[in-house]
Amino acid sequence: MTPPAAKRVKRCEWAREEGSALQRYHDTEWGIPSRNDVHLFELLTLEGAQSGLSWLTILNKREGYRRAFAGFDSAKVARFTARRVAELVADASIVRNRLKIESVIANARAIEALKKEGVALHELLWSFVEDRPIVNKLKSLSELPANTAESEAMSKGLKKADFRFVGPTVCYSLMQAAGLVNDHVVGCSFRFGSR
User: Is 47 assigned a catalytic role?
Assistant: First the structure.
């Protein structure tokens, strides 16, 4: 039986199934600002992998991605070879799309190139929101945009730095996931109002 206090907690519509992976992700990660480069590389990878699939599918494969991509250590992933790509294409614990897999390796190499220039991934990403989260005050999920001027700028900036699978919609999803944008609806007591 659910305690009365727990029944009063309101969440965004997509995270209301009690105890689900989506609810755990909503409650503990989505919209919380992250400046951890390993975490940001992971989210960038997962958002790119999600393109055309459900987010639940990707969450269910998250541990597989962590194993397959060396815990998102960009220096290690940047050294992956064509042989490793062939192994990953056969790995059922991740999305077995060669272009998406190759994009993760290309993105790791782009992260390493940024490091050589003295720029951390989080610095680049947060520069598109002037280093502070954008807090939207949405009343319902129907108000969520697919992309914004900031995600368009991020997409262009990342492409210029040789990142792949970073269209404006993927970038906006990354911004939401990593807390560069807070798109919890105003009725969500995890981010608005009191618990």
Answer: yes
135, containing H or E segment: strand 134-135
Q: How many domains does the chain have?
A: 1
pLDDT in tens, 85-113: 999 999 999 999 999 999 999 999 999 99
For 20-56, give one letter per residue: b (16+ CB within 10 A) or e.
eebbebbeeebbeebbebebbbbbbbbbbbbbeeebe
pTM of the model: 0.93
CATH at 117: 1.10.340.30
Q: How far apart are CA 164 and CA 27, in angstroms?
A: 29
In a domain, 11, yes or no: no
What residue numbers bound the domain in which 112 lies?
A: 34-182
Query: What pLDDT, in 10s, does the model give residues 143-157?
Result: 999 999 999 999 999
Q: Which residues of the chain have pLDDT under 70?
A: 1-8, 192-195
Q: Structure tokens of 98?
A: 């060669």
The catalytic position among 42, 47, 126, 150 is 47
Cα dihedral across residues 139, 21, 9, 133: positive or negative: negative
Which is catalytic among the residues 14, 55, 102, 112? Answer: 55
